[in-house]
Amino acid sequence: MEVPCVSVPRAEGEATRRELAEADLIADDREITVEEDWLYIPVVDPDAVPDGFDLVVRDAPERETQTTPADLLGVDPSYERLGDIVLLDEDDPERADRIARAIVASDLPVGTVLNKASKVKGETRIRDWELLAGEGTETVHREYGFEYALDLAAVYFSPRLATERHRVTEQVAENEHVFDMFAGVGPFAIPAAARGAQAVGADVNGRAIEYLRENAERNGVGDRVTAFHGDVREVAPEYEGWADRILMNLPHSAEGFLETAVSLAGDECVLHYYDIQHDEDPFGPGERAIRAAASAQGYDVEVLTRHVVRSYAPHELNVCLDVRLSRAA
């Protein structure tokens, strides 16, 4: 099967392999191959491979030696990976324990297995976890070439939104002013800063802001990221009319912050508004709320994209409205 591979001289192979492994970019289910003086390392995401590496598409045999949890269980269990932590969502304690033991016994590079013990709750959107294997809830997650240290017991983070975060941050241009109103540990602000933007992030979760600052330094953008602990409505007056791009990733609650968002907008600004609505009309409520808030402050609204992020629950969709706000003449 042909897959994207990094092509590197054999003499540089081990150093390159380590760098790609640290970024969690190596396709573990494919073999690294050698041909003459060249090493070919299969990668999971060619777009996230750092500049300077040569990418080719070539055959990479499937690894036959890796033992998966499915091999040990006889069925393919559902789980998510976040750094070296595996996340389960199992109601049956015996089944959860059985899956955890299989994961630990497999060849997955895993240090901890957690099972969801509550829904996301409270203003900081964290949840309770049951520790099934390993120690602790802190890890370093790698996503599209960036690293995020975080503690799942203290902050909210969803690996399922990686593709959506990448979709949005790829739109950021150099020298933009980007304001993330609910920044968490930085998965929007940090890639935006890496593209040359000045990014500001606010969050009511103090631990998330500590990680945001740490992660900005970890990813080499500490000089382009400003982090505030507190309600964004308290910070906004300092940045009135400043933003070229605003992120509102707080589904269920973002509408209550639209007046603040519009106050942050410059004469022209792109707003990424996240919402969860019934699938009969997933975009209408958000669009009407945005238009009302924008017109009240003298802005016209152009909807650029109506985008379904994922299914959230039966008949409910997590959606994003990308809109351009333009100050009316």
Automatic annotation (TrEMBL):
GO biological process: tRNA N1-guanine methylation
Domain SAM-dependent methyltransferase TRM5/TYW2-type residue range list: 79-327
Keyword DNA-binding annotated: no
MF (Gene Ontology): tRNA methyltransferase activity
GO cellular component: cytoplasm
InterPro entries in the record: MeTrfase_TRM5/TYW2, SAM-dependent_MTases_sf, TRM5-TYW2-like_MTfase, TRM5/TYW2-like_N, Trm5a/b_N
Descriptive protein name: SAM-dependent methyltransferase TRM5/TYW2-type domain-containing protein
Record key words, sorted: Cytoplasm, Methyltransferase, S-adenosyl-L-methionine, Transferase, tRNA processing
Signal peptide: none
Keyword Methyltransferase: yes
Xref: Gene3D superfamilies: 3.30.70.2580, Met-10+ protein-like domains (3.30.300.110), Vaccinia Virus protein VP39 (3.40.50.150)
